[in-house]
């Protein structure tokens, strides 16, 4: 019966009586992990949002790295993307319409089919089934890749939800927050208990391994072991490697909007081999708002962390 029920009764000291973690959270260790992450290739791909954000028959506008971008569904639902400014008189194409897979400007009816038109530039786009990506070579400045660098994900039959929040910071501040697992039980006591960092990055295994209990209610929680790693410079991934939901993933993507403004796009992809999870999949539509709420609750705190880090960096006061 114990193996069938993932919930556990746990004990933990009151918040102020937890073991301090500041001596373990060495700034040099976090900074080194951040530098390794930001040095990895992205191929100039940026997350633009959830796949569900781009629906058939309606354009979707984004600002990424200071560039206006418009996305829409072309023929057969294929993801299309391009400059968000109409080449005729600069109208915002996100306010246009989509008909027969073409993007139509609402000012004068100019129709774009996703190929180059005058000064209007299409962008490579990728839909991975959970997130949509746009490749901006001018903004990225790297050697382009044919597709974004994706982390390992659970198999088909998972439940995914995507939450998006905006912060006054840069992508590196978002990534740095996730590369500091020691703050979890102190900064988010409503969600985490008994957090222990088991492993820090090494030359052979560039990841953090963390043991933690996810609080459910009162003294009831779900203990897991999670690994944090960075497949590319603007993404931190948490894989559940042991415990309930093994194989589940939380992907945190930091997309620059402009200097000092960043979108946090967090995809939670839940998976379980339990029979109950299979029965819950038909109710995924009802579960997604709850999953988004949980992610947004954490990120309201974590954006305070990222924004504070950004403010101190801008003022030249960030601790060495």
From TrEMBL:
Oxidoreductase in keyword set: yes
Rieske domain location: 45-134
SUPFAM superfamilies: ISP domain
PROSITE patterns xref list: RIESKE
Protein keywords: 2Fe-2S, Iron, Iron-sulfur, Metal-binding, Oxidoreductase
Entries under InterPro entries matching the protein: Cholesterol_7-desaturase (IPR050584), DUF5914 (IPR045612), Rieske_2Fe-2S (IPR017941), Rieske_2Fe-2S_sf (IPR036922)
Protein name listed in UniProt: DUF5914 domain-containing protein
Species in which this protein is naturally found: Lentzea sokolovensis
